[in-house]
């Protein structure tokens, strides 16, 4: 296989939540895999709302530019180092590595390469977005049949999986979104009640139609939506705080109100933060299940149809995601 002598990758050259201003493309020598390593040609990379947190320096306080960007990617092995037995050139693999996604190639320890059925946009979507929903709902919230689940930003990259996996667990699922295209997707995914907050008043609908609240909330919007979700927790309710996208570009907003425990204790409720890298031990069981559900048609994968091609398109893709334009997971073809 003929390989180039150089490759390109996206790096942050300054700290800023403005992704476009913070990033640049650099060309560097292509490394050769050392003992126990594999060289991977990335084909698809997932775009995440938290990309702007990474360029702002919030993921690794004290880290100074330049540093590499991107998270999940899929591609194929193009070269293996000495001692690598389990992988060979041509094998499709996935990676979940901070700084590995927005790059044409990456060289990593072979043990960190995840065998995948194919190097496709659908598979890359399952890596971070699918795993987050699967592990959070099953291992942390422990969703049970008959429970009521509320999913905010339900038509996004990870929300779509939270809806479907909660349904597969036997729950009643309410999903929120902001466009009719997203509402149509949620209906196709089996959402029991879809709330387009631009057509209905979210607070009024939840208070009126669900006076007993929700057993589980899968929340990624933050701000006033988070406050409402805390209010809507049922007795013994569990709120999974996956993110707070509404504050990513501005930074966290200071608030002045009664402390959270005054709302949780009367309901014996809980708010739990969820950060996927803390649950690596569960990847081995959850990822094969996700692949199996997808392969058998029990889990649909919604990829936003807007094409983003090459590293040059990554800033466009990040801005598109933050504008709320996406229906499903945003993916860049490399």
UniProtKB/TrEMBL annotation:
PROSITE patterns: QOR_ZETA_CRYSTAL. The keyword Disulfide bond does not apply. Residues 18-332 form the Enoyl reductase (ER) domain. Keywords: Oxidoreductase. SMART domains: PKS_ER. Pfam families: ADH_N (PF08240), ADH_zinc_N (PF00107). One of its GO terms (molecular function) is oxidoreductase activity. It comes from the Bacteria. This is Alcohol dehydrogenase. The lineage of its organism: Bacteria, Pseudomonadati, Rhodothermota, Rhodothermia, Rhodothermales.
